[in-house]
Amino acid sequence: MDRDELLKVLKQRPFEPFSLYMSEGASYAVKHPDPIIVTPRAAYVGLGGNGGGPAADQVVICSLIHITRLRPLPEQTRAG
Fold first, then answer.
1. 55 lies in a domain?
2. Could you report the per-residue pLDDT of 11-37, keeping only the tens digit for each?
3. Pairing relation of β-strands 58-63 and 42-47?
């Protein structure tokens, strides 16, 4: 995935929660843009914590070249 493409999705308002899919099969629900830091080669994704808000319990490092797609989260999955 291109860095600028991911940043564009994170900055869109209103924010649309999405799942981030990795080449090895893992996926991560992104319910809020704050717990993600994007660098030139990776996205640091905060997981858990305050119902998907800005606090995180753990962080996964996702290499941008291994992000295969983003898909909108279903409505029932977006909250908490």
1. yes
2. 999 999 999 999 999 999 998 899 899
3. antiparallel
